[in-house]
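Hi R.,

Here's the chain you asked about this morning:
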Amino acid sequence: MRVPLAERLRPQTLDDMVGQQHLLAEGKALRRIIDAGEIPNLVFYGPSGVGKTTLATMIAKKTNRKLVKTNGTTASTSDLKDIIADLNTFETLNGVLLYLDEIQYLNKRQQQILLEFMENGKITLIASTTENPYFYVYNAILSRSTVFEFKPVQKEEIQRAVTRGFGKVEKEIRQSVILEEGVVACIASSCGGDVRKAMNAVELCTLSADETEGGRYVTLQLAQELTQCSAMRYDRDGDEHYDLLSAFQKSMRGSDPNAAVYYLARLLSAGDLLSVCRRLLVCACEDVGLAWPQIIPVVKASVDTALQVGLPEARIPLADAVIMVCNAPKSNTAYLAINRAMADIERGKVGSIPRHLQNKHCDGQDQEIKGQFYLYPHDASKSWVQQQYLPDIVKDACYYEFGNNKNEQAFRRYWEQIKDDKK
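And here is the predicted structure, written out as tokens:
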């Protein structure tokens, strides 16, 4: 079985690693921990292909503990118990360094099995995850560990790795690999910060390159064909999915059409039409809202059109709607009003509905004053009368406040005039 280039080229020292300088540069906290040699329980969090496994392997070599590797996708409860059963053997007198990849796939019970032995130091855990550990890792493990976030590797750093990768392949095939200008930059830009993807692209480009008298010639077009859209793929259940959606909605809320259209393009390139439509509808209601309420049916019509025509044409009505939301006046007063009301309900402020609003046409024997006494607003000259609508427990609550925009200020002036006339 042929070992992938990413594995054959895996760095052996901290200085060989690309990226993660916020953790591994001289003087940084994780670098000092590793150099000291006293390794605590660690959780590495970040996307695939950015060096989590590589660094864990390097750390294991610096300890005198037995290294045990396992993966959360395949490890069973019995596998974990077998690791624990070996703790009292001669081979593990100094304890075990357990590298647990994809820890998020272990259930709570499986993670709890490790706690006692992490506590007494017989197991030093280095766990890695592509998901936010504060959502997926058991709190008791987190409290015994230090979490370090790994970030996508910058293009400039990946270019170094790509150049090194082509050099490695050249030596292995004993043949020159000639690169058209722009190939290295193309691969580095298209891998989405994933070094493993970049190495796979290097290997594919070399295997697919035309044979020439001077060696294998890798064209820019070939590199583009083999790397297209790789940076746009993401796990729809993972953090990157929600990060993109968050950036999309916040760009619309922040009235930046360039950023919003960019994130729309990334989401649609991944085929995520439904999530785009949902966030767009929410943003129209939450962030434009009463500043321009007419936008809500307009955006709904754009979403309906997009869902009817499907991709790729759906991008056109969605772009129309996104740019419209960006450029519309903003108000979140309705959003704040319902949140305040919901908060009162959750605090138990649920009083009796005032008698004059109830759907009753006769009074019981316990009612001292008979009659409903509801005042019908339309009987008044300006269709408004003063009466209590809220229960007594919240009768003075103010959930809605007029926003500082043309539409709501017009509402405010209208009602101030109506209510002043009634005083």
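One quick note: Residues 155-173 form the longest helix (19 residues).

Cheers,
M.
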